[in-house]
Amino acid sequence: MVLVGDIGGTKTLLGVAQKSTLVVNRRYANADFSDFDSLLAAFLAEARIDPSHVAGGCLAVAGPIADDRRRARLTNRPWTIDSEALSQRFGLPLLRIENDFAAAALGAVTAPASQRLTLQHGEPLADAPCLVIGAGTGLGMAIVLPDNGHWRVIASEGGHAAFAPADEQQMALWAFLHQRHGRVSWERVVSGPGLTAIHEFLSGTVLSPQEITRRALSAPQSAERQALNLFLDAYGAIAGDMALACLARGGVFLAGGIIATLLPALPASGLLAAFNAKAEHAGIAASLPVHIATDPLLGLHGALQFTHE
């Protein structure tokens, strides 16, 4: 029995696998718990898991990971995940800790074709790097390199690179965010809170990302749709920039819960145009395959694969 987890800023997915197959999984809202220990205790009780039967596992965490893969602190929630402390409290073996987007990346590149939607076929190269990028509570990304029949995952904090406005409207958005935060990273724009900020910038009204998305998809002429269009333009731009940075000829995978809810809006959006708008390097950008990872348990499946290394 193997314990796996995908711990984000807003939600946590926990699961148990046997013989490389998930047999139990649960989803929790992080706001319902004061710390990760209490969340894990709830999962073990609800799923009736005896910790003594757990042989190992991996927790994928949305934040920087210690070099020994035993400790992490979430970027967007004041939680610390400590493998040794969890072992002592619950009687678990030492669990491996990985970056959540490292797990998502491993899950994305190894998922079957049925769990991806292709936006741009490009000219894929089997031995080239892949990029996985996804907006959620924050903006995560990771690079995956083929390595003698295996995959090597390089975690990244590229979502905290500086936002680069592409036009006058985006420059005004930058000024709006700079007045509030000082330095403006891509995560301030391309994330759930970023979508809320864009809508406030355009309309003066604060709405949740879920409400903005709901209204945008039902009313194409609404202020919410304008906010969503600006969000998707920015999403495409940062994905294209990061893909150029690592020449992701193996494929670019857009992951995360936000992009999955926006599928109906993508054909008419500027996401792909912004991805490819790279001036003298537009030809290179157009050669990069672009996919949407549609597996709702992507992080858990990636964490499970880490347990086999």
Please explain how this structure is put together.
The chain has 309 residues and is an alpha/beta fold. It starts with a strand and ends with a helix. A 6-stranded mixed beta sheet has the order 8-13-12-9-10-11, sandwiched between helices. A 5-stranded mixed beta sheet has the order 3-2-1-4-7, sandwiched between helices. A two-stranded antiparallel sheet has the order 5-6. The relative contact order is 0.17. It is built from 11 helices and 13 strands.
Topology, element by element:
Elements: E1 2-7, E2 11-18, E3 21-29, H1 36-46, E4 56-61, E5 71-73, E6 80-82, H2 83-90, E7 96-99, H3 100-110, E8 116-120, E9 130-135, E10 139-147, E11 150-156, H4 168-181, H5 192-203, H6 209-218, H7 223-246, E12 251-255, H8 257-261, H9 271-276, H10 282-286, E13 290-293, H11 298-306
Parallel strand pairs: 1-4, 4-7, 9-12, 12-13
Antiparallel strand pairs: 1-2, 2-3, 5-6, 8-13, 9-10, 10-11
Task: State the main characteristics.
309 residues, alpha/beta, Nucleotidyltransferase, domain 5, Hexokinase, domain 1, 5-stranded mixed sheet, 11 helices, globular
What's the quick description here?
This protein has 309 residues and is of the alpha/beta class. It has helices at residues 36-46, 83-90, 100-110, 168-181, 192-203, 209-218, 223-246, 257-261, 271-276, 282-286, 298-306, and strands spanning 2-7, 11-18, 21-29, 56-61, 71-73, 80-82, 96-99, 116-120, 130-135, 139-147, 150-156, 251-255, 290-293. The protein has eleven helices and 13 strands.
